[in-house]
Automatic annotation (TrEMBL):
This is Cysteine synthase B. PROSITE patterns: CYS_SYNTHASE (PS00901). Residues 14-306 form the Tryptophan synthase beta chain-like PALP domain. Its EC number is 2.5.1.47. It comes from Aliikangiella marina.
Length: 328
């Protein structure tokens, strides 16, 4: 046990969002580099999205976009929904979540347990289709005269990372950071953390970890977006470029297959004792690829985005892994 653990007594659960610990991933082959994982799974609902949920709601309250008693609507891969469910319950708002059908059943149960209404929609349609989760959420918000959070176009998403995640990483590494590896769902993390770190130290390399099938890594490499494919990893990879996502910050991009991602998450649990979700597997594999290509020692930071507890029916279930052909 370390003697520098945080012994603070918080006045409420929302104050526990952020200020997450960082741990060196020392049991993995990181070549000449030091790889640090920031434990976003330690946020109250178990993901990095608690940070943006709180900031987006508090910004909307401050500007009057969200009024007392109004319903909140959001499209999410699940984690933003869980963060919003926490904040909404604490502050007394009703919440409606539009969740694509590929997302795990654990997320749906968890959202419902926290008092949210969950509407499942198709995962096989693209932006512009009325059943695409973001379009459907916008329609429902209009019908209900509700507040549509819209993390994909909401500057308060980026701001949460500019004000908290970025500065925390800078302080925890005491500025000794050479590269930051992240994925893109909404692009809030990339734009906020990437933007903050580059402003402090322009030589910090920003590395995209992207699922195979997403348009973002190919767009970085060729300047053109291919047709979007399909992937099983939840929370990152895109079929369009969200308006808040600043791809110009990127120095490198790696495409990681579902199989590589799931196996990397499982290895993280067995070797480092951290039970993370599938998006963290994409980040970890991209970070390891980057580390192993370096010839000079570097300090590389990545995120452990969310807890693996919400993927017990999937990547931590051997039957599911076998069925998908990821293990023998
Ligand atoms: N990991 C997980 C598990 C997520 O749910 C998300 C957001 N959907 C991200 C990473 C991506 O973060 P961002 O939206 O900031 O790009």
């Amino acid at each position: 046990m370390s003697d520098n653990k945080n012994n603070a007594v918080y006045t409420n659960v929302l104050d526990m969002i952020g200020n997450t610990a960082m741990v060196e991933l020392s049991n993995l082959d990181t070549g000449v580099c030091r790889l640090l994982g920031k434990l976003e799974l330690n946020n109250p609902t178990g993901s990095i999205k608690d940070r943006i949920a709180l900031n987006m709601i508090e910004k909307a309250e401050a500007t009057g976009a969200l009024k007392p008693g109004q319903t909140i609507v959001e499209a999410t891969a699940g984690n933003t929904g869980l963060g919003l469910a926490l904040v909404a319950a604490q502050k007394g708002y009703k919440l409606v979540i539009v969740l694509p059908d590929k997302m795990s059943v654990e997320k749906e149960y968890n959202l419902k347990a926290m008092g949210a209404e969950v509407i499942r929609t198709r995962s096989d349609v693209e932006k512009g289709h009325p059943e695409y989760y973001q379009d459907l959420a916008e329609t429902i918000a209009k019908e209900k005269d509700a507040f549509f959070v819209n993390q994909f176009g909401n500057p308060a998403n980026v701001e949460a990372h500019l004000k908290t995640t970025g500065p925390e990483i800078w302080q925890q590494t005491q500025g000794e950071i050479d590269a930051f590896v992240c994925g893109v769902g909404s692009g809030g993390t990339l734009s906020g953390v990437g933007g903050y770190l580059k402003s402090k130290k322009p030589s910090v390399e920003i590395v995209l970890a992207d699922p195979v099938g997403s348009i973002l890594a190919p767009l970085h490499h060729t300047g053109e977006a291919p047709p979007a494919g399909k992937w099983l990893v939840e929370g990152i990879g895109e079929d369009f470029v969200p308006s808040i996502c600043d791809l110009a910050l990127l120095d490198h991009a790696y495409s990681i297959s579902d199989k590589e991602a799931m196996l990397a998450s499982r290895e993280l649990l067995l070797k480092e004792g951290l039970m993370a979700g599938s998006s963290s597997g994409v980040l970890l594999q991209a970070a390891l690829n980057y580390c192993r290509q370096q010839t000079e020692p570097k300090t590389v930071v990545t995120l452990i985005c969310d807890t693996g507890n919400r993927y017990l029916s999937k990547l931590y279930n051997n039957d599911w892994m076998r069925e998908k052909g990821f293990i023998d």
